[in-house]
Amino acid sequence: MSSQSLGIQRVAALHMFVRDMERSRDFYTKTLDFAEIAVSTPEFEANQRARASVVEAGGARFVFMEPLGSRGDSFRWLAKHPEGVGRIVFDVEDVQRAYKLIVERGGTSTTGICHRKVEGGNVAWFDIATAFGDTQFRFVEHQGKTPIMPDLKRLDEPRGGTNKYGIMEVDHITSNFLTLKPALAWMEQVMGLEPYWEVSFHTQDVGKGNFQGSGLKSVVMWSPESGLKFANNEPAPPNYEASQIFIFCEDHRGPGIQHVALTLPNLVDSVGRIRQNGAQFMATPDAYYDLLPSHLRRIGVNAIEEDIEQLRRLGILVDGSEEGKYMMQIFLNDAASQFKDPQAGPFFAELIQRKGDMGFGAGNFRALFESIERQLQAEGRA
């Protein structure tokens, strides 16, 4: 792996290719209190063959694109996949340097370096093909605040929410693959990412001859300079096709982005209000909270500030690594369940609050896996 960094600073935006732009926009603005900050212009719609809405909360931005006609990136994506993340945009320090490093490392650029004047400033960017299925990466260099895409019009007055939950930024991105090795090699050799953490497990002990459960292997890669983390999963044998990771790849029709984690400053306060707005979250069994005090003591987290019974009522998970350092997280239902439409896809959002712990928590990782497995069983699919 090259020791040279690409200079990634942050996730600037996620481009979501959708069949119903209003449905996605309304969920984020009305349920998660994002603000709609920009819309497509006739020029954008002619060039991109799509109409668009941009929503933002803190440093988290989603660009929803719905195809117009039978051409354009969003049309090609949706001809192969349900709705999902078609492009991840990164702010970088020096786009020329990032481009040079990626090409030298054998990466595949799908554009040259493009230049435009956007919102009064000069912007340069390029796109690459990735190991994340059909999801592309875009690298953008700009001055000042993060600009919107060319030919999108910023609204004079944002519409929708005001970010009352205090969403701050994208914490990490989680993807599912049928096999991890090629994707990890690409992340290390082309992106210059480094291994951060890994875990593997089954929901039942296959080592004792129990072949009913399913499992995964997960490896987290990260950019030490920016702190951005990519969690990457593959199904585990012997019940490879029973694993929810395999089922995701079937539903998504290939590998891709499973979820994006958004950081909040007060998860306990926010989750109750988000539930009142109609959001549906993945369920956590009571047994998780019955065992939580002993689990926290075992990992060295002897006290937390929150009341466990309140966490139980809200469905919030807790994990950590040492005394005084822990994190809390909760997972929304995937879009297909949220909208009751299989074509809305298996993508979902995670809400996370870090209280000193910067890891992932093997206990919570397993709890999420089991929660999705229970949902699939309820649907008769596992």
- In CATH, the architecture of the largest domain is Roll
CATH topology of the largest domain: 2,3-Dihydroxybiphenyl 1,2-Dioxygenase, domain 1
The SSE string, one letter per element, is EHEHEEHEHEEEEEHEEEHEHHHEEHEH
Number of helices: 11
Describe the structure.
The protein has two domains: 8-160, 2,3-Dihydroxybiphenyl 1,2-Dioxygenase, domain 1 (Roll), CATH 3.10.180.10; 170-378, Roll (2,3-Dihydroxybiphenyl 1,2-Dioxygenase, domain 1), CATH 3.10.180.10. It has eleven helices and 17 strands. Helix 8 packs across helix 9 (308-314). The radius of gyration is 20 Å and the shape is globular. Helix content is 28%, strand content 34%. It is α+β, with helices and mostly antiparallel strands.
Topology (SSEs and partners):
Blueprint: E1 8-17, H1 21-31, E2 35-40, H2 42-48, E3 50-57, E4 60-67, H3 73-80, E5 84-92, H4 95-104, E6 114-118, E7 121-128, E8 136-142, E9 152-160, E10 170-176, H5 181-189, E11 194-202, E12 215-222, E13 229-235, H6 244-252, E14 256-263, H7 267-276, H8 286-298, H9 308-314, E15 317-322, E16 325-331, H10 335-339, E17 348-355, H11 362-378
Parallel strand pairs: 1-4, 5-8, 10-13, 14-17
Antiparallel strand pairs: 1-5, 2-3, 2-9, 3-4, 6-7, 7-8, 10-14, 11-12, 12-13, 15-16, 16-17
Helix pairs in contact: 8-9
Compact summary:
Helices cover 28% and strands 34% of the residues. With 382 residues, it is of the alpha+beta class.
Keywords:
382 residues, 2 domains, 9-stranded mixed β-sheet, 11 helices, 17 strands
